[in-house]
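Hello support,

Our group uses your service weekly, and this is the first time we've seen a run hang past the timeout. The protein is Exodeoxyribonuclease III. I'm not sure whether the cause is the sequence or the server load. Input pasted verbatim:
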Amino acid sequence: MAKTNELKIASYNINGINSRLHVLTRWLAEFQPDVVGLQELKCTDEAFPAQAIEALGYSAIWHGQRSWNGVAILSRVGEPVETRRALPNDPKLEQSRYIEAAVRGLLIGNLYAPNGNPWPGPKFDYKLEWMDRLCEHARNLLDSGLPAMLIGDFNVIPTDQDVYKPERWAKDALFSPDAREKFRDLVGQGWIDALRSLHPDARIYTFWHYWRNSFQRDAGIRIDHALLSPALAKALRAAGVDREPRSWEKTSDHAPMWVKVRV
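Update from on-call engineer: The timeout came from a worker crash unrelated to the input. Re-ran successfully.
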């Protein structure tokens, strides 16, 4: 267990929780995060592997969807108390993209934002609409004054610094000017990008394609983020990426990113 006054809170797009359960359980056992937001479960609620996760000492809440999307929050420092499982006025409630819980006095919103490709098109329009809903809810979280965190796969590459070769992503929805502007608007409300605030000049990636030896060449992008409210940012102690699991057999194309906060 962690020190009683410090929590390691992680985000991991697992890219299919049941097909990569061996990766998830190994990472939980070896890296021992206290709270985890998972994305892309790609399973129904009934198929969620609750017993395997509970066997490692984690309580869990989840919102599944057959074959696509899906989000969960795991905690080994007290049961997560669910406060929301969709953004207010989400135009497509059948898509499981957001779950929120109170854990150890923190409010944690775990999200899997729409990819938006192909761009332009209806999927990209939905991406922007969903991000508008996120911004509205994020503003309400800030107005509450609670120590809050938005963590997950935002499917946005914020800047040129967050991508191996910007020109190769110029036509991708993740790097589109509109998506980046939405992310800037979100951060501009007062949220603190934990990784960038502690590592302002570093090249840090959280996703690498499976092809062309992308991970071995470190040809990645940063799309998994942790945004902290000002009340929580004061407690930020560290932030990073657990790169090792990306090298494991039959692993996700994402690596877990994490923050440590004093509580």
